Amino acid sequence: MGQSEHSSAVQILKHALETAWSPFAWAASAPSSALRRYRASLADNGQAAACARFDNRKWTLDLLKHLEWRRFEELCAAYYEALGFRTRLLHERADGAVEIVLCAEPDRASVIVHAKAWDAYRIGIGPLRELRDAMAIASVRKGVLVTSGRFTREAVNFAAQEHIQLIDGAGLLEKLSELNPEKSLALLQFTMQGDFLTPTCPACSAKMISRRSIQGGRPYWGCVNYPRCKHTFSSTA
Ligand SMILES: [Zn+2]
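Output (structure tokens, whole complex):
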């Protein structure tokens, strides 16, 4: 199910860009029912109104900050495809996040990109160490860490020593706005398709469900496959 949801979003972008641009070599085919399921998931969990409050004509930091982590990764991969890179997504990271491998030439990895969705805390050295290790394993000299949030000063210093480019939320907003207007708009439509707010379970790749704790009524996101899967995310809703 996860793969189909992922692919459905890809399919949407392919339609949007059919003639001008053909991105997403990593997930070219999608079952025809996937798009319907995507829309159904939007209606089911009541997130439609929340999604509708975002401007769908121009990129904003507000949108980037609210994108759920999986959609943020997809946006990052799609952005690099828009720049002309071939991308490969590897599902090998411990936390369920993907590794985005950029190939300037076919089948030759040249850059590794890790994406981190918005967090109230600034990104420190930990995720950069993970990226550096991934670069070493792949024998790639260049890495990029993209976030919709911000970095600590220590992270900035570490990145400078390790050939890692840091792109924070403001930087990403600038880059998206600088794309050719048609590509930029198509990317925005892709990013805002369906439910782009509800987090995806890292283990099951399914959209999570809003729940409340029994004691205290604290809201949180839980997996649809509970109790088999016990993944949760905190929620401010
Ligand atoms: Zn799960």
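The mean pLDDT is 84.
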